[in-house]
Specification:
The structure is a homotetramer. Chain A folds into two domains: 2-152, Rossmann fold (3-Layer(aba) Sandwich), CATH 3.40.50.720; 158-281, N-(1-d-carboxylethyl)-l-norvaline Dehydrogenase, domain 2, CATH 1.10.1040.10. In chain A, 51% of the residues lie in helices and 11% in strands. The first copy, chain A, has 13 helices and eight strands. Chain A has helices spanning 2-11, 23-31, 40-46, 57-65, 88-100, 114-118, 130-140, 155-183, 188-196, 203-206, 230-246, 252-269, 277-281; strands at residues 17-18, 35-36, 49-52, 79-82, 104-107, 110-111, 122-127, 144-151. The longest helix of chain A has 29 residues, at 155-183. The relative contact order of chain A is 0.09. The model of chain A has no long low-confidence stretch (mean pLDDT 95). Chains in contact: A-B, A-C, A-D, B-C, B-D, C-D.
Chain lengths: 285, 285, 285, 285
């Protein structure tokens, strides 16, 4: 993901310095014209505009605040754009430290997968000070097509986990509904059509229907390969639950959706597209 | 509901004979030109095309198979169109009896409320033999604008309860999501906009958003008055659970949605629009 | 089950006439001294005290009210004792018909499995008129050791489905808790001991712990063989949900327990003991 | 809570130095013979055996690792016993820091309320190195009657949150079951008796039945006053969910129990005993 983003920055004329734990990713980018920094600390000593894309909370904490981290060497007035999907509270924590150092940290998680990253079609949900948004947008425009300012720092994360929680609920709900309808004698395509012209419609029923054969060219019609992995969805639902806990927000369906996806992961479906929940509901006694 | 339907039939030139347990409804229709039958049995003895609209399973059983019921006097080749929302198994039971008597019973539950009934804008989901569908459609066209043939008898009901189960899941999910996002610092209108341009979108987020003020002119912006009552939604979710039980279909979110709406009913929200679930989630500690 | 019950009646000196759909069961009982009736109707014509043990609602309806059913020939003042586990509403329906005919129908579902049936150690939960309880008890005493009068007809069923709903909740809860504790580094036997001396204790943690090896001689320590099958538990939870629907009783955990057991059935665990839920939760990612 | 614990230490002949943010608590203890430290740092500079009792994760982090915290002045070979109920991961974090400094940190959360604290009847669940357990036990024996060694550091917390998760599930399950049974016509005391002689029994059905009048002298028979507050239970369920997240442990019922208790808190029941869930389920439509 990060590699595609770096390439799109270079395509748009930016000079890019890269750092990654995987040597192969780094050397491929080097071949494509990127400079290389051996550590996060070195990177921050050589540029004041830094985009990060990391897997989870502890990685972000380590890369920013570790002994060889970005904050250890960053100059004043640095701009940090973090595209990781993490807990909004961690984004706020990083932003507070950046602010003490006279710099700015903004969260900018993405939606869209590997293909959207390659084709610069990502959506970025950005949280942070409004006066910095234009600058951030000019950079993210190289990598995405929708750059939305969501509010103060952390609201980019908030937007993403809210969206994905509702997405998961809609997907499981659509799967339950399609399965129930089929067992009651309805033709799957006709049922999808009826839902989509009625109040039951949602993104999962309309453009990503989990029942194989209803829509061609999506994971459900390809043995649930590709798409958005169940393990990644489970991770995002975990972030939603942390945020719900921290704010005392009741999320009964979001919470159950998280549990159901966790069971799918534990049962070996982690790498399948998250629409695979349909298949696991339709088993017959 | 039935009264508006009868008026729309008369407007389209049909002679209508009515029967109802509420004398006021009957006399109002009489003033408008309807003839009156004292019992269901009398009604069936005077016409062979009969439309019924009843509250629940036992009412349908009584009106059709009771000692003064429609089947007691109906002529062969009668056509029964039942617009009640009931268990598909009961529709199939009635259809089997009708068939033994040489008649046809089709289920045709509606979606759309009192206003849609008045304006002949209802959607009818019709289950029953294909060869009778044109005749049924010609009648229902007087009262609705979408007449969909869903398959054999019972599939009209199946379509409606599937749609409403997914609708309830989407509504509660949207309510949880809007509330969580707001507590995380997002502006409600901006959050709705982000969801609606992303994969979280559903009917409830787009056209019936449960957060007051996001969309004008809907129940959530009018103290949850009008609209589709929580008690009616709870009834439909109960039908969905019966159908799921009868077919061994797992519906974890549908089942929890049913429980959550039942608690709302028990807490006095039965007559509020079903989007009121948002309000009950947002209470502060 | 029924065969063991019949043998225990004979052991206690009762003359027994049997009827069953499985010829092998009938001939085995005949060898042991039972007389045989070819139909339910014949049975009811030859005795006025009748004990039934049937799998589900429709079987009870058929055996009692079918054209060759018990009610078709039963003499006035017959006593029907139904040990099936069914919907309390169906028990009440049968009791009403019996009452019209001058007879008495009492529900008396059992708890305890095949071994308890053989050894006359069943518990019977009896619903029906108090003045008939002594007579019923004198018969059931031959087959069980606890005969409890629960109230009017249907309350025997109510007691059983209430107990089994709470049992299922306790079993899934214990399974979640044991698994969580083990993953947090606790020794399973020590965790069970701590729960059992504290407020977390329940029947499932104390005498039927679902974690293999914690207690010897129970299904969890024998690959979940024997015991109380997941499919039977799922059936009882379905009855609980019907009863909850009929009485508008909120049962969020009972409802989710039902869904979780249904998924287990659909995934092929129907014949394993219901404590197998532990195994399905503990799978690793 | 901490005050009672300090008094019981003094009663057993220990010299006690106290520190607290509430001046009244401190001066009351001073009157009873305790010495006073102005800060945590001062306290740790004056003794090498320290017992802490704090409300939540951040308080523990602050008191131990803050600039005026215990670790800032503690001598080598100090023994820290933390009786707070917190995330096991935070206990492990504190233990790791203590260990680096040549000291020992053990978690020892309690079960039992204010009265048990006063009467030295608490249960302590202790996590930490076995070779230190005897020393810890000799201190905790002054304040409690059951001192259980659960394993390495963090397992005391793990035991407590496991117990309380299962307790919450049992309490909600018992409430659903009692309410369903009553609506089905069963007498509450008889139902409780039947459950308690059968496999449905649990601590909540036997000694803390949530239905008013079934057991005298407990919160449910006193308008749900006293006992274990819903807000505290909700906090513990939040810790259970964090631990479940951190270990990928599926807890569908535990998760739903958490959500249900959170809604109760938001609806104003936070200070009522956690058995109040019965009352909120039994409302009539």
């Amino acid at each position: 993901m990060g590699a595609s983003m770096a390439r799109n920055l270079m395509k748009n004329g930016h000079k890019v310095i890269v750092n990654d734990v995987v040597p192969e990713s780094v050397s491929a980018l080097k071949n494509d014209g990127a400079e290389v920094a051996q550590t996060a600390a070195e990177l921050a000593s050589r540029t004041s505009t830094i985009v990060t894309m990391l897997p989870s909370n502890p990685h972000v904490r380590e890369v920013y605040t570790g002994s060889n981290g970005l904050f250890s060497t960053a100059s004043q007035d640095s701009l940090f754009i973090d595209s990781s999907t993490i807990d909004p509270a961690v984004s706020q924590e990083m932003a507070a430290i950046a602010s003490e150092k006279g710099s700015t940290f903004m969260d900018a998680p993405v939606s869209g997968g590997v293909v959207a990253a390659r084709d610069a079609l990502l959506t970025f949900m950005v949280g942070g000070p409004e006066e910095k948004f234009d600058e951030v947008k000019s950079i993210l425009d190289c990598m995405g097509k929708n750059i939305v300012h969501c509010g103060k720092v952390g609201t980019g994360q908030a937007s993403k986990i809210c969206n994905n929680m509702l997405l998961a609920i809609g997907m499981i709900g659509t799967s339950e509904t399609m399965n129930l309808g089929i067992r009651l004698g309805l033709d799957p395509k006709l049922l999808a059509k009826i839902l989509n012209m009625s109040s039951g419609r949602c993104w999962s029923s309309e453009v990503y229907n989990p029942c194989p054969g209803v829509i061609e060219g999506i994971p459900s019609s390809n043995n649930y390969e590709g798409g958005f992995g169940t393990a990644l969805m489970t991770k995002d639902l975990g972030l939603a639950q942390s945020a719900a806990n921290a704010t005392n927000s009741p999320t009964p369906l979001g919470s159950l959706a998280h549990q159901l996806y966790r069971v799918l992961c534990n049962n070996g479906y982690g790498k399948k597209d998250f629409s695979v929940v349909f298949q696991t509901l339709k088993e017959e006694e």
